[in-house]
Amino acid sequence: MKDKIIAKATEMFLKLGFKSITMDDIAGEMCISKKTIYKYFINKEVLIEESTETLHKTVYQIIEEIISKDYNAIEENFEIKKMFKGVFQSAETSPLYQLKKHYPEIYQKVISQEYEECSRYMKHNIQKGIDQGLFRKNIDIEMYSQFHYILTFSINENTRLEKEAERLELGAIEYHMLGHGNARRHYRIRETIT
Asked: Which of 25, 94, 100, 128 could bond to 73 as cystine, CB 3.0-4.6 Å?
């Protein structure tokens, strides 16, 4: 039952917002009593925390699956962007924006987790692009992965509407890819996700 509550709550939080969804809403949607939810979650903040943790794990499992398909570095970036678009397509307001505004302590935990995972992925992707001759050999991998992380998360935590965040993120990926030099001649993948 706990996993079902997390799954339904996550779906509702993403669609309607962390702040606006109440425990009553979740109970009503699931046709269970609020008492059942409180049996597993002492309060809404704990449920939000566990929902974001579950979402984090799901997203990074999908990223690992995409990486295992051995796309080239540019395709890999756009496939991951496509995956994010699918996961967050029902969200009207950017989830990070919502967390930062209404649940700053949970937001800080999410950001520290995301930094570690995102940084690991970006370093892998940049090295892969260098090895494939798609990116310049003299790129400072550590610095570029930090730049990309800061830019992407700044967009998501400061842009209220998810559609606008998506548009800006796509621009950030283009900027990132084209900024690596050799990627220009391989750059036609954007059309697959717009």
From this structure: 128
